[in-house]
């Protein structure tokens, strides 16, 4: 989806960010330019500020936040500010932010140094499973923990589905589900968070496809295709698993697999 843009150009403020003691003690001038991605159609049609992002309020928040907090690096200042903006203003979907430092102490003539970043909300589709102990309790716990995590919002959860075990290991039936997660976490950060929640649920990785208290998988992340030693997106076997496609088709039937270019409903139908 292509979003509308609201721009704030070259907002100046005085703050105390820097590596050297004199920078954090005396302070210096900084300049921020910001592009906010949102949907302005409702505000435009109704002429109602409540339906848009108030650039005046945002400008004052930026100034107050950057003066209240101190960072050694402008990279850290930009990163933390972008996150705070996305968390504070619910109509914001993403930001492009450039933080300029005109008086950077490099000992050479220059106009400014700057760091420019783009940050946005992402949509992840997760698979959940349990076949030990209080299965429903473990799935409920995972949903609750994810929704309480800073920078994460659970948008939809499928019904819980009883399924036969996968992988040929004799064990109890599973309780499976899928959910849609709006998140600021990167795929790697999200994977780390899922492992943390599994550990809290006393998950033990002893037998592949064996019994487990809680199993959390990243199925899709936006339309990303990636592979490294720790993570593969989309999940390599999701298109072959009815215990994934059934609950996922309940909450996201028209989402397309970024490799096979078919909707979840189509993949489920073909699986038969």
UniProtKB/TrEMBL annotation:
Catalytic activity annotation: 6-hydroxymethyl-7,8-dihydropterin + ATP = (7,8-dihydropterin-6-yl)methyl diphosphate + AMP + H(+); 7,8-dihydroneopterin = 6-hydroxymethyl-7,8-dihydropterin + glycolaldehyde
NCBIfam families documented for this protein: folB (TIGR00525), folB_dom (TIGR00526), folK (TIGR01498)
Gene Ontology BP term (one): folic acid biosynthetic process
Domain 7,8-dihydro-6-hydroxymethylpterin-pyrophosphokinase: 208-219
UniProt EC number: 4.1.2.25, 2.7.6.3
Pathway: Cofactor biosynthesis; tetrahydrofolate biosynthesis; 2-amino-4-hydroxy-6-hydroxymethyl-7,8-dihydropteridine diphosphate from 7,8-dihydroneopterin triphosphate: step 3/4; Cofactor biosynthesis; tetrahydrofolate biosynthesis; 2-amino-4-hydroxy-6-hydroxymethyl-7,8-dihydropteridine diphosphate from 7,8-dihydroneopterin triphosphate: step 4/4
Name of the molecule in the record: Bifunctional folate synthesis protein
One family name in Pfam for this protein: HPPK
Keyword ATP-binding assigned: yes
Biological role: Catalyzes the conversion of 7,8-dihydroneopterin to 6-hydroxymethyl-7,8-dihydropterin.
Organism domain of life: Bacteria
Family from the record: Belongs to the DHNA family. In the N-terminal section; belongs to the DHNA family.
GO molecular function terms noted in the UniProt entry: 2-amino-4-hydroxy-6-hydroxymethyldihydropteridine diphosphokinase activity; ATP binding; dihydroneopterin aldolase activity; kinase activity
InterPro entries in alphabetical order: Dihydroneopterin_aldolase, FolB_dom, GTP-CH-I_C/QueF, Hppk, Hppk_sf
Keywords annotated in UniProt: ATP-binding, Folate biosynthesis, Kinase, Lyase, Nucleotide-binding, Transferase
């Amino acid at each position: 989806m292509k979003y509308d843009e609201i721009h704030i150009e070259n907002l100046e403020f005085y703050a105390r960010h820097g590596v050297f003691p004199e920078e954090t003690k005396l302070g210096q001038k900084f300049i921020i330019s910001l592009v906010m991605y949102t949907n302005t159609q409702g505000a435009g049609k109704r002429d109602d500020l409540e339906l848009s992002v108030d650039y005046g309020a945002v400008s004052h928040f930026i100034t107050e936040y950057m003066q209240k907090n101190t960072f050694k690096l402008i990279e850290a200042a930009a990163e933390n500010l972008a996150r705070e903006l996305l968390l504070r203003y619910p109509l914001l979907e993403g930001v492009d932010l450039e933080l300029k430092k005109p008086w950077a102490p490099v000992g050479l003539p220059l106009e400014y140094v700057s760091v420019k970043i783009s940050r946005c909300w992402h949509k992840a589709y997760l698979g959940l499973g349990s076949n030990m102990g209080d299965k429903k309790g473990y799935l409920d716990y995972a949903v609750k923990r994810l929704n309480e995590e800073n920078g994460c919002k659970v948008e939809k959860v499928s019904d819980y589905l009883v399924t036969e075990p996968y992988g040929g290991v004799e064990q109890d039936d599973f309780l499976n589900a899928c959910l849609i997660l709006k998140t600021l976490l990167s795929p790697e950060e999200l994977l780390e968070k899922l492992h943390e929640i599994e550990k809290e649920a006393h998950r033990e990785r002893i037998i592949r496809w064996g019994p487990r208290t809680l199993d959390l998988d990243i199925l899709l992340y936006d339309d990303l295709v990636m592979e490294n030693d720790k993570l593969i997106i989309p999940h390599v076997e999701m298109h072959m698993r009815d215990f994934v496609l059934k609950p996922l088709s309940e909450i996201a039937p028209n989402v397309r697999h970024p490799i096979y270019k078919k909707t979840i409903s189509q993949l489920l139908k073909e699986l038969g």
